Amino acid sequence: MLFSLKFVARKTGPIALTLIAFLSLWQILCWSGSFPRTLLIPPADVARTLLDLTRDGTLEDNLLASARRVFLALAIGGSAGIVFGLFCGTSKTLWRQIGPLFTALRQIPFIALGPLLILGLGIGEHFIVTLLALAAFFPVALATLEGARGVPTRYLEVVAIYRLNPTDRFRYLFLPSVLPAIAAGARIAFGRCWGLVVAAELFGATSGLGQMMSWAREMFQIDVVMAGAVIAAAIGIICDALLRAGARRLMPWGAT
Amino acid sequence: MLARPPLTRRLLHSLSNSGLLLPIGLIVIWQAADRATPRFLPNPADLIHVTIGLSAHGLLAQDLLASVVRMLCGFAAGATGGAIIGIALAASPRLHTLLGPAVSAWRQLPIFSLVPLLTLWFGLDEKAKIILIALATSIPVMLNAYEGVRAVPKKYTEVADMLHLNPLSRLLLLQAPAAMPFLLTGLRQGMAFAWMATVASELFLAAAPGLGAVIMAGQERMRPDMIIIGISLIGGVGILMNAALTGAIRWVLPAWRATDQQDNLS
Fold it and tell me: Is B123 left (phi over 0), alpha (psi -120 to 50) or beta?
């Protein structure tokens, strides 16, 4: 049985333990009185703020705005990355020309592009989505590239023996090798984008999780800032786990 | 005697082999296209001109030095802390059951979402910047140190059990050396993270000399040329530092090559 009680307990037990340890440490720090209430507030208060923010729809609106940007960026940057990776992974000549530039560019901290994009596109959706799409492009491109290149030679030999036609070769050899790589790249791209969207919204935006936090910081609403950080971390962690589990379920052969 | 191919073709060939053809071609096209289009981006010749102008009084050099020093401070603190926590977590079974899930969760923490919180706690000046850099560095270093110690081959642990090694000598003789390749990979990733956090801290926290400040000044004065110079310097310094660290590591530990390939993705 997949979801036996024992299995669930073994999976969730340590996580619950860690959460409890973390929350009690936080609470003890608050009780100790060494931090003023303007700087550190107890977990229960953060939970109450989270509830309030959820109830009046603030959290939902801002979260959806951030999520929409990340989704658009992943769709645009990710598909460009897949196309780029497929071309460069299958053609050595192409890679010899583009490779060094690609490797140099992917080491640039993308956050530095923010001000340039703002000058070019103005503050708003366009600059955030462009910045995130750039950040999503590189991990997906790199992963696709390596997946396309990494078809094991002995499989190629088997394919040669069976004289598979190009369609079957694509279906049985190429796709199974590339798809898990793309999934892994997409997971990394999601992590980058989710981290970057908050930062991009700090530059200036009319909505979004980062905007909510930076506005609350100026108002010294520490509870909203902490609630925002908790939500951003929780969503990052949960989505990564879901993407990982989804990839494992859909492509069990490419388990990483 | 064979006639040598003409100079231009040889030049083209060596450029194409070293992968410089595309970047140089793009720069040439950029310079040429600049005449035709309405000017938003400055052309490469302008950029060189402005760079020389900016660096005339040692301003750019001062910014560059400030950024690098800032990064190194945060990197040193974060790498030390991260390595100690990672090794301790992996070496002690009790800590591992308690904090193991937290370790894998920490990996996904969007570090920039902490910027507003950090500024409330530590202000906007140098201290907050270095804390942000150290935090960013510590994540990959800790994770790699942790994985390195977890990956000690079982036969070695069995030998250690047989010899009744005490925890300290087990750590020094077995776990630390085994974790070393992973740790060095972590240092490399940590340096990339540190550089990113340095730039972010200079963009979001108080203005002080630094390459991020060059970019911000460019944004305020509507000077795309200054922003592009800032970005190029940030990219160039990042690539140079990564190459230097990789070279140093290879020199110290030739065996590191084995795990060199694994970190490409993360």
Answer: left
